[in-house]
């Protein structure tokens, strides 16, 4: 059975698909009522599943009549990959952030489902038996290598 967070995530994603634009505005309290949960549960889903690594930009206004604006960001082929490479340089990347970025690369058509599973296996904590923060640094280097490979001409010709 799916968790409440999974249901909220799928609901928001389905609403985004129905939109004619890449932006969706919701009221946190209204969404909480739909799922009979507290607004902090909505915040949790937004903060963990609709991050920049997953390809979303979240704007939030609190208070009476406040809203959440969710924008799906599309990757422009080389420019976005170069930006991601720059962002991962000398950074630490958690497993959750790495998997989110990998899922985003798959959603945007940069990775097949098989390649996505392989990358996730390579960056999992089980495959990197070193202590933090070294593990997050190694994970960032692996992701950076994947991004650099995606830019290579021969990779794009085979795909």
TrEMBL record:
Similarity comment text for this entry: Belongs to the CtsR family.
Protein name: Transcriptional regulator CtsR
Entry-linked Pfam families: CtsR, CtsR_C
Record domain CtsR N-terminal HTH: where: 3-73
Lineage, top ranks: Bacteria, Bacillati, Bacillota, Clostridia, Neomoorellales
Domain (CtsR C-terminal dimerization): residue spans on this chain: 78-147
One term of GO molecular function: DNA binding
Domain of life: Bacteria
Keywords: DNA-binding, Repressor, Transcription, Transcription regulation
Record GO biological process: regulation of DNA-templated transcription
InterPro entries the record matches: CtsR, CtsR_C, CtsR_C_sf, CtsR_N, CtsR_N_sf
Species of the source: Metallumcola ferriviriculae
